[in-house]
Amino acid sequence: MEEKVMQSCDEIPPKINQPSGYLEKDFLPKEMGWDEWYCQAAQFKNILYHSPNGFAIISLEGRFISSNPALSQILGYSENELVGMNFDHITHPDDLEEDLHLKDQFLRGQISIFKRKKRYIHKDGHHLWVQVDATLIRNRKGDPNYFAAQFQDITKQHELEKQLIHSQRMESIGSLAGGVAHDFNNILTVVLGYTTLLEKNSEHPEKILQYSEIIKKTAERGSSLIKQLLTLARKVESDLKPSILNDLLSEAAHIASSTFPKSIRVISDLPQDPIWVQADHTQIHQVFLNLFLNAKDAMPNGGLLSIRLRMEEGEFISPEKTQKTAVIEILDSGTGIDRKTIRKIFDPFFTTKEPGKGTGLGLSIVYGILENHKGKIKVESELGSGTKFSIYFPVLE
């Protein structure tokens, strides 16, 4: 018999825009030669082994079946240590609930792929941020078989984003400073004025009570304003928790109406029933205030800032999924934006403001924050016709 010679496996791998035959046949090379099957298997194994990103096969129960060296470098565990380990063993406790929820969605067939930033616990105990891209692989019968996941260490990127967000947040406070000073001057004027009236009416108890109540309410208004500005200035990790969107929007609208020039009228149309979302209070405040400040800058001669909130059901967040969505519309009667600018408006460092009056980070950070909250944003505008920003949040069921 003539001995079969295995073909060389050094050629460039074939196109991978479609699954290879051996993948579709449960790894049995029925319609392709053994040598071709062997080479494709070896080539793909080499690609995953030498990939700079971590890669792992994970069981439906969440246990690592196999991994590549890059994942060991990211997490600090060898492949032998990872095999058999459950993902919850190395997941940050605050991120575990979301992971378990996503796993259930996978197994119920609600999703087949997801991207997520989460924290892992390195073998030496420190926390790191990782971008995870996971896919559910099914067998020939269509039943769930295992998870294929890719991991990218984004810890440095995450720290840089935190610094940029804090820097831009302080820029927002600087933009509000003039209005804050004016508002506090009014507050102090009221307090000092009624203090003088108290002295002049020391023998009239009913007037003393009346003036004391006015001073108290005025001081509380000042305290509330300072509290909200300090909340905006805080430098903290993301803290996503169930929140009432109506309240967050109302607080930000109050800051705007308290600090913007009197030539700008701020009106809000918010529903009475609470709309619950998963949100970080500080970051969502920043989203709203950034958009409000942009509206203020677009109305140098005054105008109307309109803020609306409603709940709808549709495909706002994902075209593949209908879900309840909170829709926020922020409309101004300002100068508007041309189409060329709209195409670049969320790009980092892009700004139409004069040098020294803006970093160009505001809207790019707004976009990133909403992406982390699984939300979306779009803008509609024409020169001379004002601007409308629409924000979409998935509602907690």
- CATH class annotation of the largest domain: Alpha Beta
Question: What is the CA-based Rg, rounded?
Answer: 28 Å
> Which whole number gives the mean pLDDT?
78
CATH architect. name of the largest domain = 2-Layer Sandwich
Say which CATH homologous superfamily of the largest domain is assigned: Histidine kinase-like ATPase, C-terminal domain
Query: What's the number of extended β-strand segments?
Result: 12
Q: What's the order of the H and E elements?
A: HHEEHHHEEEHHEHEEHEEHHEE
Write down the CATH topology of the largest domain. Heat Shock Protein 90
Helix content: 40-55%
Number of helices: 11
What structural category characterises the helix and strand content? alpha+beta
Low-confidence stretches are: 1-7, 16-29
Which shape, going by the Cα principal axes? elongated
Between the first and last Cα atoms, what is the distance in angstroms?
69 Å
Tell me the strand order in the biggest sheet: 2-1-5-4-3
Biggest beta-sheet profile:
5 strands, antiparallel
The domain count comes to: 3
Descriptive overview:
The longest helix is centred in the middle third of the chain and has 46 residues. With 397 residues, the chain is an alpha+beta fold. Helix 8 packs parallel to helix 9 and helix 9 runs antiparallel to helix 11. The chain has a five-stranded antiparallel β-sheet with strand order 2-1-5-4-3, sandwiched between helices. A five-stranded mixed β-sheet has the order 7-9-10-12-11, covered by helices on one side. The N and C termini lie far apart (69 Å). A hairpin with a 5-residue loop joins strand 3 and strand 4. The N terminus is likely disordered. It folds into three domains: 50 residues, no CATH class; 101 residues, Beta-Lactamase (2-Layer Sandwich); 237 residues, 2-Layer Sandwich (Heat Shock Protein 90). It is built from eleven helices and twelve strands. It comes from Leptospira saintgironsiae. InterPro entries: HATPase_C_sf, HATPase_dom, His_kinase_dom, HisK_dim/P_dom, HisK_dim/P_sf, PAC, PAS, PAS-assoc_C. It holds the Pfam family HATPase_c. This is histidine kinase.
